[in-house]
Amino acid sequence: MDRYAVVGNPIAHSKSPQIHAAFAAQTGQALSYEALLAPLDGFAATVAEFRAAGGRGLNITVPFKLEAHALADTLTPRARAAGAVNTLAFADGVLGDNTDGAGLVRDLCHHHGCNIAGLRVLLLGAGGAARGALLPLLQAGPAKLTIANRSADKAVALAREFAAAGGSPLDGCGFPSLAGRRYDLVINATAASLSAEVPPLPPGLYSDGALAYDMVYGKEEPPFMRAARLDGATRVADGLGMLVEQAAESFALWRGVQPDTGPVLAGLRRALAAG
Ligand code: ATR
Fold first, then answer.
1. By CB distance 3.0 to 4.6 Å, which of 33, 47, 154, 259 could disulfide with 23?
2. Is the distance from CB of 98 to CB of 79 less than 8 angstroms?
């Protein structure tokens, strides 16, 4: 049986084994998928051991995505742009991919009816999560994309770096500069939700019908979603679908089969609500 795993520290909370087991059952793929705890100073050794034992591929989570990027022999363009790797595939060499941004775009499109082409998109944050989403977002053809960050200089630098990556106008700024602007899609890629905080945004950001999306998820709605609704967002969404879609992209890379994510997402949503 082909072996796969997710590597992180901590890792016990990971939903990836459950998601990939569901994909494998659904598509009739004979594989096993486990959770591997790597010591903080032992990522490369954990990967080498797994590979030597016949492992075929890995998902990589916090805090090892940068190390995985450094370890790969070959990078996909989206992994190179992200500067981080969440998927390794072992063949003659080690291929590094990043499916997070594609997972976001697929979730928006398939589960929220949100076609990014032609939309005014605001991406909040300029850290790893925002960077990982940028290339797939730009490739989806928004009318314009603004990166806004607490530290404005980081947003400006990120916008400059990705200026040539797509045809859409791209700019970077701090939160106060958003005053008076309107967006159709606002994506929270800051770490604020992790500490139950909300980025300090000026009011009136949302156009009619706008969607506010937070990359995090949990039993409780992320506070960003509540704040967005109060500020006039018509629709709000959390990042559970992004989690399932990034897993589906990894599964497709490894197995050449695209799983049906709908039932798997619905099952996770039920389990999360039951908590
Ligand atoms: P990640 O990999 O999750 O993106 P990161 O690379 O450490 O983590 O980046 C964290 C991001 O969340 C940054 O954009 C950070 O803003 P700064 O660059 O100004 O630090 C943002 N962030 C963290 N806490 C925040 C808060 N309370 N309000 C707004 N932005 C916050």
1. 259
2. yes
Side chain identity at 86, as an amino acid letter? N
Q: Active site includes 65?
A: yes
Distance 125 CA to ligand 1 centre (A): 6
Ligand 1 pocket residue status of 126, Cβ below 6 Å: yes
How far is 229 from 211, CA to CA, in rounded Å?
A: 9
133: left (phi over 0), alpha (psi -120 to 50) or beta: alpha
Regions of the chain short of the pLDDT cut 70? none
Decide: 146 and 153 in contact? Cβ < 8 Å.
Answer: no
Domains delineated in the chain:
2-98 (3.40.50.10860), 101-239 (3.40.50.720)
Helix (H), strand (E), coil (C) string for the chain: CEEEEEEECCCCCCCHHHHHHHHHHHHCCCEEEEEEECCCCCHHHHHHHHHHCCCCEEEECCCCHHHHHHHCCEECHHHHHHCCCCEEEECCCEEEECCHHHHHHHHHHHHHCCCCCCCEEEEECCCHHHHHHHHHHHHCCCCEEEEEECCHHHHHHHHHHCCCCCCCCEEEEEHHHHCCCCEEEEEECCCHHHHCCCCCCCCCCEEEEEEEEECCCCCCCCHHHHHHHHCCCCEEECCHHHHHHHHHHHHHHHHCCCCCHHHHHHHHHHHHHHC
- What is the number of the ligand 1 atom nearest to the C-alpha of 189? 4
**Whose C-alpha lies nearest to ligand 1, atom 23?**
191
Model confidence, pTM: 0.97
Work out whether strand 87-90 and strand 57-60 pair parallel, antiparallel, or are unpaired: antiparallel
